[in-house]
Amino acid sequence: MARDMSDKDILKMELEQLQKEVKNTREPVSKTAKEICEWVEAQSAEDPLIKGVPEDKNPFKEKGGCIIT
Amino acid sequence: RDACAEPHQLSKGETIHTLKTESETLKAKLEEERAKLHDVELHQVAEKIEALGQFVMKTRRTLKGHGNKVLCMDWCRDKRRIVSSSQDGKVIVWDAYTTNKEHAVTMPCTWVMACAYAPSGCAVACGGLDNKCSVYPLSLDKNENLAAKKKSVAMHTNYLSSCSFTNSDMQILTSSGDGTCALWDVESGQLLQSFHGHSADVLSLNLAPSETGNTFVSGGCDKKANVWDMRSGQNVQSFETHESDINCVKYYPSGDAFATGSDDATCRLYDLRADREVAIYSKESIIFGASSVDFSLSGRLLFAGYNDYTINVWDVLKGTRVAILFGHENRVSTVRVSPDGTAFCSGSWDSTLRIWA
């Protein structure tokens, strides 16, 4: 547990982690950002909070006046 | 021979000072590698995208019944039920359509900071200052005493900050003030995997969307967001750009990125394939911490709850704020979009939950 580790042990843990991460493969933002944008655009048409939902189709929009308890 | 390729051995003569120097050098090298690929900003790529229209969202339901601060909530996959937990130890299951309470249980501890609905909808998990995560099967008989069937699953050595079922009711992932995350078998209570790497309290975790494989992200008081491989327990990527505690982490719907909310009053987006932060959602006028974040279904919108009682809605791609929602009368502690994306729910220290659509 981090709370029980000495400062030295924590630093050693962080150092080992950094050594691994420096070797990770990574792609240019120009490519990944473009793909994120494309993914979002493809999904946006079906995103109810963007395209809106007609009042009569959304159970949260109606006042619930028809429910008999 | 590249010094970085050698596994690090703790040898004599190694001091905190030499370790720190080596760390600083490596951090600088990591930033250098990341910067080489930082050839454009996300909002620049998003310039050609049509701006969002006028954004109107209102409170459609207010769920009243908690006697104290609401700390956490989760949606059931049926898109209508909600579980919430509060400072006074109460865990309530609601029907959000009707606002009726379906179940209520009182935990033996206060500050129930974590709660989660099981994928089947037949159980809920919760925990907090008791340092545990317990599972309560939900009975169809509303009069049955839920506490009688309680099953203790996780045991940490400090508070439970967050919990989540994996893709089934059989396993739970937890994060804790003890600085670790852990994966547990619900039936036996056995610890399946533990995740070490944070150097302070872990405050939040989120599982990657099932299509993208077995990873999850965690964030905490060490200002780090870590991405983990669930099978090996390895920390595969980590990000340290926030200036204060990370209160909440949430995967982007495609699984290629995640967002964070922090006490430094910003929310940020980290791109996992570019291995860097690619957006900061902030304004000079926003000076209070962001406690909780969630994406709309397409990932275009980011809903963030703040300690200044507001909810800000951000255009994820363009980096601009599209709306600010008022209504809560105290800190917003939790926000979650419903499973079908038609609404979102917010919980607050004002002891209420609100459904917005």
TrEMBL record, chain A:
The keyword Iron does not apply. Keywords: Cell membrane, Coiled coil, Lipoprotein, Membrane, Methylation, Prenylation, Transducer. It is found in: Cell membrane. One of its GO terms (cellular component) is heterotrimeric G-protein complex. InterPro entries: G-protein_gamma, G-protein_gamma-like_dom, GGL_sf. The keyword Cell membrane applies. One of its GO terms (biological process) is G protein-coupled receptor signaling pathway. CDD domains: GGL (cd00068). It is a lipid-anchor. Gene3D superfamilies: Transducin (heterotrimeric G protein), gamma chain. It comes from the Eukaryota. Residues 1-69 form the G protein gamma domain. GO terms for molecular function: G-protein beta-subunit binding. Transmembrane segments: none annotated. G proteins are composed of 3 units; alpha, beta and gamma. Guanine nucleotide-binding proteins (G proteins) are involved as a modulator or transducer in various transmembrane signaling systems. The beta and gamma chains are required for the GTPase activity, for replacement of GDP by GTP, and for G protein-effector interaction. Belongs to the G protein gamma family. This is Guanine nucleotide-binding protein subunit gamma.
Automatic annotation (TrEMBL), chain B:
Belongs to the WD repeat G protein beta family. May interact with RGS9; this interaction stabilizes both proteins and increases RGS9 GTPase-activating protein (GAP) activity, hence accelerating the deactivation of D(2) dopamine receptor-mediated signaling. This is Guanine nucleotide-binding protein subunit beta-5-like. WD repeats lie at residues 63-104, 153-194, 195-238, 239-280, 292-324, 325-357. Signal peptide: none annotated. SMART domains: WD40. Residues 16-43 form a coiled coil. PANTHER family: GUANINE NUCLEOTIDE-BINDING PROTEIN BETA G PROTEIN BETA. The keyword Repeat applies. Keywords: Coiled coil, Repeat, Transducer, WD repeat. The keyword Coiled coil applies. One of its GO terms (biological process) is signal transduction. It comes from Sinocyclocheilus anshuiensis.
